Amino acid sequence: MAIVERNQLNVDRNSGADGQERREAVLNIIERVKLEGDAALFDLTEKFDKVKLTELAVQPEEFEEAYRVIDPAVLEAIREAIVNIRDYHQRQVRQSWTTTSETGSMLGQIIRPLERVGIYVPGGTAAYPSSVLMNAIPALVAGVPEIVMTTPPGKDGKLNAAVLAAARELGITEVYKTGGAQAIAALAFGTQTIRRVDKITGPGNAFVAAAKREVFGHVAIDMIAGPSEVVILADETANPVYIAADLLAQAEHDPLASCVLVTTSAKLAEDVQAQVAKQLPELARKEISEQSIRRWGAICVAADLEEAFDIVNELATEHLEVFISDPFAYIGKIKHAGAVFIGENSPVAIGDYFVGPNHVLPTGRTARFSSPLSVDDFIKKTSLIHYSGTDMLKNGHKIAALAHFEGLQAHARSVELRLEE
């Protein structure tokens, strides 16, 4: 893991990520699903997931089988995580409101949940029950009445037991065995079996991300998430063993995952470098982690904490871990990050799985203007206006003047007629 200068830090892994070749392939898939519906899903599932399905919808007996085979410890962890995640997101709930003036006018905002939401859960060779929880729970808290889930099947045509159990624990029983760009197209436009949704959320590979980009506008999406990333800010008091472990935890996600240490201590930089080299060979996914660390891993030594926070804010990372003495005195200096983990007992993994905040986070420096997935992503707001005659008499000529200025005579006339009356 290289020690680099500040101007050598590069975490832009998205250049060319949606190349023309990939975009054309995704557009072809979307068009096929629009034209052929279920037939395209069956064919593309056989092509990409190497399994021939006879039905898309998960049947009740498949949920029952999942409960028979799931590890009881995993099921217990899922249930406890649900409690924590729901409690955190319930604190985000907004209420409709109105306000009335002394002259009789009323203004307000009506907040309603979306009617139907599709959550995409990656699958196939891996299983992510945590993605079920993080996408579905804020939708449930918002009051979304219909939540549908899609996820690619394994080569045996089945879905992972933990993924199915997580869905069932949340009351989600409309689950379909389809993944990739074709699943996004099915959710956006509908097929004979899958009814279209209002919004699609959830992570996926580059083709899923490209498909979400293409269907945006027909439906809403949460974000275009790129490869995962972590920045660790540490001073001389930090534990190099923990830091190396946390960097490698992020690296095992993907060869494109980014892992950066920003520190004020040259000695800590060297100790972490040595620890990464020591711990890496012990990992089950060491080949993936090694690629990530080699291409997108870096250690940067800052002159002081002031410069360190400048670097952190410039990177605007998805996950930020802070290992410095008296960290709460510096919270105000953090301007851009998806989620902040403070102290040596707060690795990213606790947020990924269990403690409550959402793990669907902005990547690729989009934390400068984006937020974690939340209850707000599953509601819509409607403005409410009642204008009194008193206020029309008082302000109508001002409104008409603005309309005339913009050259919209009919707008002005719609107000002036009322003034004449």
TrEMBL record:
Pathway: Amino-acid biosynthesis; L-histidine biosynthesis; L-histidine from 5-phospho-alpha-D-ribose 1-diphosphate: step 9/9
Pfam families named among the record's database cross-references: Histidinol_dh (PF00815)
Recorded GO MF terms: histidinol dehydrogenase activity; NAD binding; zinc ion binding
A single cellular component GO annotation: cytosol
Keyword Oxidoreductase: yes
Keyword field: Amino-acid biosynthesis, Histidine biosynthesis, Metal-binding, NAD, Oxidoreductase, Zinc
SUPFAM superfamilies: ALDH-like (SSF53720)
Chain positions recorded as NAD(+) binding sites: 120, 182, 205
Binding locations of Zn(2+): 250, 253, 352, 411
Enzyme class: oxidoreductase
Cofactor note: Binds 1 zinc ion per subunit.
Active-site residues, as the UniProt record annotates them: 318 (proton acceptor), 319 (proton acceptor)
UniProt protein name: Histidinol dehydrogenase
Gene designation per UniProt: hisD
